[in-house]
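User: Second chain of the day. Same drill as before.
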Amino acid sequence: MRPPTAAHAALTDEAVDAFYVDPLADMPALRTASGPHGAATWIFYAPLALPAGADLATVTLHGTVVR
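Assistant: Same format as last time:
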């Protein structure tokens, strides 16, 4: 977990439980507790490209999500 950055602030205006940064793409991610029935909600940007030579165990794509 990391301290929030300006990029994190752009993701949501809801209460945030934890701030993260994806180490591979260096992109912000956060977890809120404002989902249905108190379940945590993850909010993050999806990179358009990954660094060359990135070691990925798996990639699962289910379509485009726009917020």
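The first strand starts at residue 16 and ends at 22.

User: Great, on to the next one.
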